[in-house]
Write a structure and sequence with these properties.
By secondary structure, the protein is an alpha+beta fold. It contains 5 helices and 6 strands, in the order ααααββββββα. A 3-stranded antiparallel β-sheet has the order 1-4-5. A 3-stranded mixed β-sheet has the order 2-6-3, with no helix packed on it.
Length: 216
């Protein structure tokens, strides 16, 4: 005995202190583990939110791409024949000029062969226009309508106080549209000097297209 306690009691005290220290160490390790797990959980939740946001953005981009592609395909189908149709309009114009160039006396002459030729040209013109219309090409004939610079090309003005100003009084060359686009504007003459059109704003005739005037 060195401290007044039997050896057995002192050993018990040392064992008790060792056990208490072990418990404390285990508790500290446990608390540290819980904190680490919590931080890891927060990190995983943040990464999950980021991945979810990326997935939503990717889905939105794919949907926008799908819509744009569908619109481009639709436009391609609707306007694929635009250039070809525009070229065919010159052929139709020439057929109409050929018919208009025939004098009325010649038409009324009674010559069977000549009448058959005229009818053949007219049938060809109607067939061509009908074919173009099946492909979405529509004729613009704005006689008597208000001048619209989106669809009409003003070639000249006609003084006429009896007709509202900016009214189309003469169609020099018919226009055509395909879908909601203008394939070729109608070349027209508009009234000048009459009462204004009943609208909020008066539309002035556009500038004369010199090339269009030559083609007419």
């Amino acid at each position: 005995m060195t401290d007044g306690k039997p050896m057995s009691d002192r050993a018990k005290d040392e064992r008790t202190l060792a056990e208490e220290q072990a418990v404390e160490d285990a508790a500290e390790r446990s608390e540290g583990g819980i904190d680490g797990d919590y931080e890891a959980l927060l990190r995983l939740m943040k990464e999950n939110d980021e991945l979810k946001d990326r997935a939503l953005r990717a889905a939105a981009e794919m949907e926008n791409l799908r819509r744009r592609t569908a619109r481009d395909v639709q436009d391609a189908r609707a306007y694929a024949v635009a250039n070809f149709a525009r070229d065919m309009l010159s052929v139709s114009d020439n057929l109409r000029r050929a018919i208009d160039a025939i004098p009325e006396e010649a038409k009324a002459s009674g010559d069977v062969g000549f009448k058959s030729l005229i009818e053949g040209v007219e049938i060809t013109e109607r067939s061509m226009l009908s074919t173009l219309e099946r492909h979405g090409v529509k004729k613009l004939d704005p006689q008597g309508e208000k001048f619209d610079p989106n669809f009409h090309q003003a070639m000249f003005e006609v003084p006429n106080p009896e007709v509202p100003a900016n009214t189309v009084v003469q169609v020099v060359q018919s226009g055509y549209s395909i879908g909601d686009r203008v394939l070729r504007p109608a070349m027209v003459g508009v009234a000048k000097g009459g009462p204004k059109q009943p609208s909020t704003a008066s539309v002035e005739p556009g500038p004369v297209n010199e090339q269009a005037e030559k083609d007419a």
